[in-house]
Amino acid sequence: MSGRIVIIRHGDDPPDDRVYTYCHENGFTPDVRKPFKGEPIGYLAEDVVGSVVHGGPFNVFETDKHPFLLDEHRWIETCMANDVPLLGICQGGQSIAHVLDVYVGPRDGEPHEFGYYALHPTDAGKSVLPDSLHVVQAHFHEFEVPRGGELLAYSNAFPQQAFRYGQSTYAFQFHAEVTVEGFRRWQRDFSFYYGNPGVQTKEEQNRLMMEHDQRQASWFYGFLENLFSPNDR
């Protein structure tokens, strides 16, 4: 394989997540861009074969406060208009929903998910997620499913966890890209989550991590393969 996968990030974590690993292990160039630091995303060149917009701390509707989000939203629109395979994760998925003009924000009562939670497929989602699966979560905002989109998955607390729009745009609220090492950093860096409604204790997170991380990784690498290399298996 060859070509660039444009990866939009919203922090300075080490590039040890599964998106980055997938690119290196499958011959793609991970082209990391950080618009929040003033880096331009660039234009959609012929060698761009896909894009991933990662999560982050920014509210996607606060474009006046964070004008770089406008560039990200334009990039999302460009990818969708040109059928470029696109995955939005957490904030990235919320940006896709925002671009498609549906609600993004907290649920009533502000329930949270921080830890490893069961994800369940809808009937439409069984082609993507055949069975229930525990995945990493770190959020209290949600997105609605846009008109023309397909709801793919839900959790017990959040009824919209993933949707597909068209054939090659996916929005995930969850973080299957996060490794054990990455989540241990989050336990330290996102300690402010603990104590909020719905948040697992650190002990429960550690137990579920050991039980479910390997299966989460296997599923997510397969998903990326189907998204970015559907004709090469």
Short description:
The protein has 233 residues and is α/β, with parallel strands linked by helices.
Summarize this structure as a short list of keywords or feature phrases:
single chain, two-stranded antiparallel ribbon, alpha/beta, 24% strand, 11 strands
Structural classification: alpha/beta
Number of strands: 11
Overall residue-averaged pLDDT value:
96
The proportion of residues forming helix, as a percent range, comes to 25-40%
Spatial separation of the terminal alpha carbons? 11 Å
With helices defined by DSSP (H or I, 4 residues minimum), what is the helix count?
A: 5
What does this structure look like?
The chain is an alpha/beta fold. The chain has a nine-stranded mixed beta sheet with strand order 2-1-3-4-11-10-9-6-7, with helices on both faces. It contains five helices and eleven strands. Strand 10 and strand 11 (169-172) form a beta hairpin. It has helices at residues 18-25, 68-81, 91-99, 180-189, 202-228; strands spanning 4-8, 29-33, 48-53, 86-89, 104-106, 113-121, 133-139, 141-143, 149-154, 162-165, 169-172. Helix content is 29%, strand content 24%. The mean pLDDT is 96. Helix 2 (68-81) packs across helix 3 (91-99). The termini are close together. The radius of gyration is 16 Å and the shape is globular.
Please give the structural blueprint:
Blueprint: E1 4-8, H1 18-25, E2 29-33, E3 48-53, H2 68-81, E4 86-89, H3 91-99, E5 104-106, E6 113-121, E7 133-139, E8 141-143, E9 149-154, E10 162-165, E11 169-172, H4 180-189, H5 202-228
Parallel strand pairs: 1-2, 1-3, 3-4, 4-11
Antiparallel strand pairs: 5-8, 6-7, 6-9, 9-10, 10-11
Helix pairs in contact: 2-3
